[in-house]
Amino acid sequence: MYTEKVIDHFTNPRNVGELEDANAVGQVGNPVCGDIMKMYLKIENDVIVDAKFKTFGCCAAIATSSVATILVKGMTIEQALQLKNKQVVDELGGLPPQKLHCSVLAEEAIRKALADYYIRGGMDEEEANKLCGVEESACDHCEAHEH
Amino acid sequence: MNEIKYFDHAATTPLSREVLDAMMPWLTDNFGNASSVYSIGRTARAAVDEARAQVAKAINAKEKEIYFTAGGSEGDNTLIKGVAMAKRAKGNHIITSKIEHPAVLETCKQLEKEGFEVTYLEVNGEGKISIDDLKAAIKPETVLITIMFANNEIGSIQPIAEIGAIAREHKILFHTDAVQAVGNVPVDVKAMNIDLLSMSAHKFYGPKGVGAMYIRTGVVVDKLIAGGHQEKGKRAGTENVAGIVGMGKAIELACENMAENSARITELRDYYLAQVEEKVPYIRINSGKEGFLPGTANVSFKYIEGESLLFMLDMKGICASSGSACTSGSLDPSHVLLAIGVPVEVAHGSLRISIGKSNTKEDIDFLVDTLVNVVEKLRAMSPLYEDFLNGKYII
């Protein structure tokens, strides 16, 4: 069901852990749905110079987080905001259909971290979320549960 | 490749060597159709009949009450739908439980679309139904009670004899999905007042793709698979002679060695639970000991997710299973764990191991040592665990 690349990123996740000097942090998902992604970014002069993650979830969730951190490193904020979940999926050589939401989560975690960067810089929260395309939740399932 | 350490005997078991040996002639030289009149047909018929006697003896039934199928799901479907259709004029109410196997639950859902009413009994924290709830659910229209003998995820054994007595008293038919029980714990259809039962050979070291139904003499069940006179017209299709012979042999061996295997396996399970409890913090034990299958242990490891746990174990050659949403193929984790009151987020991190006769204490030590490492590794990358350590997340 998983490609070799997914298994590789799951067994040897790149950039896993907390980034001590992160200036942009975004967390999405919730324990009831079974996946949470937390992205730590370090941004200098509008460029993402470092990225790390922590993830609670299945193989696909961990592998997409790993790939997402690799992809965003070196990107400008503008480029990172253009990152689509499809790129993450392509990088992994595909994901089973029921796991595609994991890649969406990775995209959302990056957007949320970037919004956090702007908020830390003094931007109004609503404005930052709008700028970065942060939405409440893309998970239909979350709405079905109390949490 | 690592050596395989197999802890998933509730999923399937390896075929016994003796069973394979018993099957081989029926896959090679003795290939006759058991319905044919010539000699190799007649010997095949005799072999099927011998296996029928072996299966009947194992559950204290009569030979003519045993019908071979292609497995447990077929038995559940045939018996539940077959009774529902045969009894339709008498009533349209069925009683089952919330923790049945999908072969029963989905069959009941199909019948609901056909105009049947189904009561799904709750279970307690140990995964057992309440006899009072069962009595209260009975109506004049009730035609069938279908309650599993033993649960596949947590191993809880239902009060089968009590259910059987109540069903008999109310003249309601009682079916039990005994797929996990037969070969592991004593099953006596007469003493327990069971009218209908389904079982599957590959759960007790027999071949896959063969099972049997018990239908008590006098009980009318409409057939599901029509088109032939085989199995007294109750189940059409050329008999899987080799599979049936294998099932007969496997059930005989399982019953012969049941007490001994059960005692040894129970000891290993208790050792596993004690070791996990001692060596891994923040767990929830979802299964019990007394009144449970000998080999099944279900434990949730908090702050991590079951599918990633399974893959990590697989890297070390360990085969087990999980009730997480990602492994169930749906958005929700195991319906059984939720029914016994396991919080959703804890159910995502569940691990079921089911011990079999070839497992050793060394296997359990290897499993527990691996779990200690793997759980630690996954928790180290879990933001949920971090929140828990910082007091921001409590469960």
Quick recap:
The complex is a heterodimer of chains A (147) and B (395). Chain A has helices at 4-11, 59-72, 77-82, 85-91, 100-120, 125-132, 140-144, and strands at residues 24-30, 35-44, 47-56. Chain A is an alpha+beta fold and 147 residues long.
The CATH topology of the largest domain in chain B turns out to be Aspartate Aminotransferase, domain 2
| Morphology call of chain A | globular
CATH topology of chain A: Sufe protein. Chain: A
The profile of the biggest β sheet of chain B is: 7 strands, mixed
Query: Strand-and-helix sequence of chain B, N→C?
Result: EHHEHEHEHEHEEEHHEEHEHHHEHH
Number of domain modules of chain B: 2
Strand order of the largest sheet of chain A: 1-2-3
Q: Based on the structure, what is the oligomeric state of the protein chains?
A: heterodimer
Report the CATH architecture of the largest domain in chain B.
Answer: 3-Layer(aba) Sandwich
Work out the radius of gyration of chain B: 22 Å
* Largest interface summary: A-B, 31 and 26 residues
For CATH, the homologous superfamily of the largest domain in chain B is named as: Type I PLP-dependent aspartate aminotransferase-like (Major domain)
Number of strands of chain A: 3
> Which structural class best describes the helix and strand composition of chain B?
alpha/beta
Number of helices of chain A: 7
Number of domains of chain A: 1
Count of separate DSSP helical elements of chain B: 14
Strand content of chain A: 15-25%
Instruction: Give the N-terminus to C-terminus distance of chain B in angstroms.
Output: 38 Å
Count the E strands of chain B: 12
